[in-house]
Specification:
The complex is a heterodimer of chains A (361) and B (307). Chain A is 73% helix and 0% strand. Chain A is mainly α. The longest helix of chain A is centred in the first third of the chain and has 34 residues. Chain A starts with a helix and ends in a 10-residue tail after the last helix. Chain A contains 14 helices and no strands. Chain A has a domain of 220 residues. Chain B is an all-alpha fold. In chain B, 71% of the residues lie in helices and 2% in strands. In chain B, helix 3 runs parallel beside helix 5. Classes of the chains: A mainly alpha (361), B mainly alpha (307). The interface between A and B is large, with 58 and 55 residues.
Chain lengths: 361, 307
């Protein structure tokens, strides 16, 4: 085996230590919760797996659930590579969703031709929206964790206003007009149910994120700023510009996610709109160690759990919210470095690589 | 003016009611953050307590039991946060986010398990209004300020009380020092970890008062995700008030006023959505104006490890 390949495998194995421990521990805890509800954990988990990957429709449901999470996961991961926490995925996704809901109807007469234009518009609005916390940080020193949280709610209320007032349509469900079916992202077919080509777009986005971060000069700068701001600054890389750019690119990814949800799943933006995709993107990114490939795996796990939950609730009487609890526990544990050290000794922790550490000052 | 703001007395009463959960949670967040632990899990702490309080009232019919349930739930969730951030050195932002998701998913799960269905819980006996004699008969201001639930009166007391604890007691001094300079605290022979546990635990207890006021002071039932961002508004109030009890309470009152106007103003005057944005926009503006630097406790967000 070439030494390079071996190193890559060891790196990948090390990177998986934390996520795997977090996943296993959360499922063990989940088994006790299932027991407490008077059900057999094995039956419940079997139903969960069946519901996630047991049939083409189940797989389709998993892909459908994973799609927006890949985008919001990338939104977190790209910013994280610059040493920034992007908690704003939720609001950024909403900005993309309203962009798509508005342009999708307006350009609907173009049919399928409108799809790339609409998604490109999502990139633009998401980029601009995502740049706001970047500018606030670079120019005024306002911490991005707080500003992105605040911008989530500003984005949600802004899009709610737009969907309820200027773009409101007549109908029972409050929200925007439905986009013409010809102008929506088509289903994949192959028995995969409602899974649409948005999933393939998400995979493309992950590849783009990888190439951007590891194969371009700008990506190198972004990562350098994240790894060592002092050194990057000394090398003349401009921390401010890279901060703005990393958050803006993150915003663009989340916004395409919102656009794909509207064009591929809902066909419009309703009020209330789907919630939690942005926040779950944080879990997806961390589980995937902020690497695009890991993000895809993390999103598939999240999507699979959500999809399997329905089958689990159907065949046992365990409420499907159990999986939300499992995901929260995974997120809780995934950065608990000391826990791994206590359980498996210092070697495991060293193997698991660089720790997450960030101040708020 | 009256068309937009309603009668002044009513608006003031509504401001107080909207501000109360924010004040509790913001004061709670202050103890945690002053000790050096970021707490973006206030939303989840409030939500789980709002639920636990209703469960307690549902099972016992007693407001005291309900309060005990809420405090216990807030404390347990806060201790999970402390365990992760202090003992296991997990990332504080991530742990806080997980606490929020855990409370959201957990209450959804338990709604089905305990009450048999999601959505809204059965009605329980809430905290009624207890008018204070004499004070409540002051024109306009009296009924608004002094014809409220006991939890509101507790909130009035809590603001100066937290100020006193934080700035006039040895405990407060140690807590603030732990957030500013943990090395110095450690050198003085005080356990940084223990102080941080205290700070986070206090944040859970205070946030739980805000939570139970939502479900049993304003309403008499639990509704899924009923906090609806109030934990983040409280966080905003904490920052806007510069990590000071008086400042945070003032900011919470201001944001409570914005919420009160949201509920009373007719849609044609100002769209609700723009009023609802006010706390978040103001906080961003404030952060930009303060420069974001040198306001937060210096050691906030960093796990402390002995060298």
């Amino acid at each position: 085996m070439s030494s390079r390949l071996r190193r890559a495998l060891v790196d990948a194995g090390g990177a998986l230590v934390f996520p795997l421990i977090a996943i296993v521990l959360s499922f063990v805890l989940g088994a006790f919760i299932v027991l407490a509800t008077g059900n057999n954990p094995l039956t419940a988990y079997a139903a969960l797996v069946r519901g996630a990957v047991g049939s083409p429709t189940a797989i389709g449901r998993t892909l459908l659930g994973a799609t927006p999470l890949i985008f919001t996961g990338l939104a977190v991961a790209v910013a994280f590579r610059a040493g920034l926490f992007n908690i704003g995925g939720e609001g950024q996704l909403y900005i993309g969703a309203i962009t798509a809901a508005w342009l999708g109807v307006t350009l609907g007469f173009l049919g399928a031709l409108s799809i790339p234009i609409v998604l490109l518009a999502c990139v633009v609005t998401g980029f601009l929206w995502g740049a706001i916390p970047g500018i606030l940080k670079a120019r005024f020193g306002a911490h991005e964790v707080i500003t992105t949280i605040m911008l989530n709610y500003i984005g949600i209320y802004l899009t709610t206003y737009l969907a309820l007032k200027p773009l409101r349509t007549e109908g029972l469900v409050p929200g925007t007009d439905a986009i013409d079916f010809a102008a929506r992202i088509p289903f994949i077919g192959l028995g995969l149910g409602r899974a649409n080509y948005g999933f393939l777009l998400a995979l493309v986005a992950a590849v783009v994120a990888y190439l951007l971060l590891w194969r371009t000069r700008r990506g190198f700068q972004i990562r350098a700023v994240g790894l060592s701001p002092g050194a990057a600054n000394y090398a003349g890389m401009g921390i401010g510009a890279n901060t703005v750019l990393a958050l803006a690119i993150g915003g663009a990814f989340a916004a395409i996610g919102g656009g794909v949800e509207v064009l591929g799943v809902y066909g419009k933006m309703t009020v209330p709109f789907v919630t939690g995709l942005g926040f779950n993107g944080i879990g997806v990114a961390l589980l995937g160690r902020n690497h695009p490939a890991g993000v895809v795996l993390g999103a598939l796990l999240f999507g699979g759990l959500a999809s399997g939950a329905q089958e689990m609730q159907f065949s046992t009487d365990v409420p499907l919210q159990l999986t939300s609890v499992l995901l929260a526990v995974i997120l809780l544990l995934v950065t608990a470095t000391k826990l791994v050290e206590l359980l498996f000794g210092k070697r495991a922790r060293a193997l698991a690589g660089a720790r997450l550490e960030k101040g708020l000052g | 003016m009256d068309e937009i703001f309603g009668a002044p007395g009513q608006l003031l009463a509504s401001t107080i009611r909207n501000a109360t959960p924010l004040v509790f949670a913001a004061l709670g967040g202050m103890f945690s953050e002053r000790s050096g632990v970021v707490n973006i899990g206030l939303e989840g702490l409030m939500l789980i307590s709002a639920f636990a309080g209703v469960v307690g009232a549902f099972l016992s019919g007693s407001a005291v039991v309900a309060l005990a349930f809420a405090l216990a739930a807030g404390l347990v969730f806060a201790l999970i946060h402390a365990l992760m951030c202090v003992t296991f050195e997990a990332d504080q932002i991530i742990s806080g986010t997980a606490i929020n998701l855990l409370a959201l998913g957990g209450t959804g799960f338990l709604m089905v398990s305990v009450f048999g269905a999601g959505g809204t819980s059965p009605r329980v006996e809430g905290f009624g209004e207890v008018p204070i004699p004499l004070l409540s008969s002051i024109p306009v201001v009296g009924p608004a300020l002094f014809s409220q639930s006991v939890l509101v009166y507790l909130m009035y007391v809590m603001v100066p009380a937290t100020f006193f604890v934080l700035f006039r007691t040895p405990f407060g001094l140690r807590l603030r020092a732990t957030g500013e300079s943990p090395e110095a605290v450690d050198t003085a022979g005080i356990s940084v970890g223990r102080m941080r546990y205290y700070g986070v635990a206090l944040s859970g207890l205070l946030a739980s008062l805000g939570g139970i006021y939502l479900s049993m002071g304003i309403l008499s039932a639990f509704t899924e995700n009923m906090t609806n961002g109030r934990g983040f508004i409280a966080l905003a109030a904490l920052i806007f008030g510069r990590w000071n009890p008086i400042g945070a309470a003032g900011a919470a009152l201001l944001f409570g006023f914005a919420l009160a106007v949201t509920f009373s103003a007719p849609q044609e005057a100002i769209p609700n959505e723009f009023l609802q944005m006010i706390p978040y926009v103001l906080t961003i503006v404030a952060l930009a104006a303060f420069g974001g630097r040198a306001i937060a406790p210096a050691a906030i967000g960093k796990p402390y490890r002995k060298e």
